[in-house]
Design goal:
about 90 residues; mainly alpha; 3 helices
Length: about 90
C-alpha cells in the first residue's frame, strides 16, 4: 500500500505537459512519475564518454552525408529531365 507522499511543484505548463504525457500512456500523473523514477538511470562516466565519442563521429560524418545526399538529388534531377525528354520524344508525355 502506498502511503508516503512527495510534493513536487510545477508550473501550470509543466503540469499540463505531465498530464498529457500520462494520458498518452493511459496512466495517472502519479503513475507516470513513478514509472519515470523507476526507469531513470544515470549514465556512468564511461557511458557518457562513449556517447560523446559517438556524437562526435556522427557530427564529423554529417557534412559527407549531406554532400552525398545533395549529389544524389542532383543525379535524380538530371535523370528525371532525361526521362522526361525521352518520353516527350516518343510521344508518351506531352
Amino acid at each position: 500500500m502506498r502511503t508516503a507522499r512527495t510534493t513536487v511543484l510545477l508550473t501550470p505548463a509543466e503540469k499540463a505537459a505531465l498530464e498529457q504525457r500520462a494520458a498518452t500512456l493511459g496512466v495517472s500523473s502519479g503513475e507516470y512519475i513513478r514509472l519515470a523514477v523507476d526507469n531513470y538511470e544515470r549514465l556512468s562516466e564511461e557511458e557518457e564518454a562513449a556517447l560523446a565519442a559517438l556524437a562526435a563521429e556522427v557530427n564529423a560524418a554529417l557534412p559527407k552525408m549531406h554532400a552525398s545526399l545533395d549529389h544524389s538529388i542532383r543525379t535524380l534531377e538530371v535523370l528525371h529531365e532525361e526521362m522526361d525528354a525521352f518520353l516527350r520524344d516518343k510521344g508518351i508525355r506531352k
